[in-house]
# Entry
Amino acid sequence: MVQSLRAPDPGEVLAQVCREDWGRLLGHLIRRHGRPDLAEDALAEAIASAYGQWSAAGIPAVPPAWLSHVASRRVLDAIRHERTLAGKAHLLATADPAPAPAEAMPGADTDDRLPLLFMATHPALAPEIRPALALRFVLGVPTRDIAALFLVPEATMAARLTRAKKRLRTIGAAFAVPDPQRWPQRCDDVARAIYLAFTAGYAPRDGPEVVHVRATSEAVRLADLAADLMTDSPVLAALSALLTLHDARRDARTGADGALVRLADQDRTRWNHSQIRAGLARLTALTPTTGYAEELRLQALIAAFHASAATSADTDWVAIARTYARLEELTGSPVVRLNRAVAVAEVAGAMAGLDVLRAAADQLPGHHRVAAVRAELLRREGDRQGARAAYDEALTACPDGPERRHLQARRDSLETPGAGTR
Amino acid sequence: MKYLVLLIGDGEMAPWDSLTPEEQGAGMQKFEEFDAACRARAGVEILGGEALGSPDTATVMRTRGGQVALTEGPYAEALEGLGGFYLIESPDLDTLVDLLRVLPAFDMQIAPVIDPYA
# Structure
């Protein structure tokens, strides 16, 4: 065929190598040179120089090997530069720039992305930077996308990432799969970081939609990868199930005008059903457990009850209310109680839901979602005046953005003569 | 890498002086187990380590305007309960933290040693 004779485009090959091999390449560099503070910049520079060189001299036979070689040389250059600056140039002839190769550790024969994931979510790093570093290290998500995800300027995010990488280097964080004894705790840390990356992008908000959608799907991809790499970790499997099931509904969550669409009103044909099947497959392989893994499993279970209802009316609210009750027992979280109030209202009526809501309201004073749920439940009871007051309370507390506009629209529709109570 | 490990607080342990001889014996046993665990781990070596006198035996030395002044007691609050230290060679922080779990559950501060001439 004529098309197959077309020379491959260096840019396309490069993009594919970056997407598929970034984590392995970076992991290999850190394993080899032990310099998490230098390796990533070196790899980025190698990638930047590749396009020009491949265009001029042709695409190398094994593109990842070319990148690895060039990046490795750049790490050595950077180390040499450091020593020159320190006035230690005379030591270069004798000093071995690479540290002694580590002894064979558990996991030394596994995918280098796994120690990379554990390093990026190291407990000696502040929890806020771990999700950003995990996206950057393991998947190579561009810093500007990570910055957009966490709503900070690119320069700020770049500075935070640099500080974290330097800290990994100075404290001497291990590049290794932790001892199996530490897996439960370390896998929880990994799961929390990825979940944080996901929720940062999932919350409805204004701004460049495309960028944070892209970053959110990267978080889902990272959860998937983590679960595949650590097959014996219930917390990572539960996380992957949960995020996949949530992400499957992404397209249906916003209408053509960018407004939020409530779960009940979503066009279920726009849900990603192959994603739902994948999430369900992960979830059904899990058994009840304890701690954070169970928390995520129960959340995934609730997402699964929603995802497998053909229509909103088919939703198994009894099962959902029961699962929320178990989740509340496990976490004692008022936010879980808030959600349980909604489920209870579906099962036993708005008044029963309001009863459950009351205790959550005491624990979450001034939270706009408490008032928003109360407004919806009062509306269903036919108490328009009460609903109006609750919407107003919610609007006062809710920051600007799609969620606030949604609340405003709900309040306005209350005023429409003959408006239903739903 | 070399690390200085400061045993800076009792943490969840009762103060050493308040322990019964048996409890102190059990505590000492953990220090011996720690020594053994370090010896058994490749790349790890205890380069130094001592127990220190109680904070009221410490003296602070300050030089101000060329004059040396000595005062009682530790200077920094973090060192109020400094009971001992180790200087340890370890391939990385994670290995070290793993080994330190063997010690009685004191609060500790772990600082990497740097080469000021590098």
Remarks:
- The longest helix of chain A spans residues 10-33.
- The interface with chain B takes residues 86, 88, 102-103, 124, 170-176, 178-179, 182 of chain A (CB under 8 Å).
- Confidence is low (pLDDT under 50) at residues 93-109 of chain A.
- The radius of gyration of chain A is 25 Å.
